[in-house]
Amino acid sequence: MVPLSVWVYVLIFISSNIIYVSCTCSDDSLFLIRSTSSNLVVDASFPTITLQHLDGYTPQLWQFKQSRPGVYFIINNSTGKALDVADDNETLLLSKVDENSVKQQWFVNSNGRILNVGVKKNLDVVGGKFTVNNPIRAFPNNGHVAQEFVVKEKRTCN
Predict the structure, then answer these.
(1) pLDDT tens across 93-146, in order?
(2) CA-CA distances (angstroms) from residue 63 to 6, 76, 120, 146, 148?
(3) CA dihedral over 117, 24, 146, 95, signed as positive or negative
């Protein structure tokens, strides 16, 4: 029997201004992070974290592992490494999970912004250019749509 793949939006619950990522399959559910202004998704195929067309391969799939209420490690399914912010406080990279590193911890806001706890910057599409291979970075909140993302669960459960 071939598993049925279904795409559904992640439920986000707001309780006392804390946002919770919820899924319907299990704690090991996989997610896509999609720019709200394009059909492009966050991809870790290259040394740089970039926007790519959706192909569903593992570099585009992420796990959200809770660090504390509302705060998550975003772990790439291909590498098992966490989305991290480099020493320049802007460049994104993948690093071995370090539960003490606040630069690997992310808060998913109800407004579509994904904020890094350590550097207090949002995921951001560089230059607001929604094109394939354009890098993603951590950047101060500027209210631009380049900082708005949708987290979608990729369901493969019954």
Answers:
(1) 999 999 999 999 999 998 899 999 999 999 999 999 999 999 999 999 999 999
(2) 17, 6, 21, 22, 19
(3) positive
Rounded CA-CA distance 19/69 in Å is 8
| Residue carrying structure tokens 């993603």 | 136
**What CATH fold (topology level) applies to the domain 34-148?**
Trefoil (Acidic Fibroblast Growth Factor, subunit A) (2.80.10)
pTM of the model: 0.82
What would the two tokens of residue 150 be? Answer: 């949708």
pLDDT at position 76 = 97
The per-residue pLDDT for 158 is 43
> Residue 14 has what pLDDT?
35
Does residue 74 contact residue 106 with C-beta atoms inside 8 Å? yes
CA angle 31, 155, 157 (to 5 degrees): 135
Instruction: Reduce the DSSP state of residue 118 to 3 states and report it.
Output: coil
Token output for 19: 């946002």
Length of the chain: 158
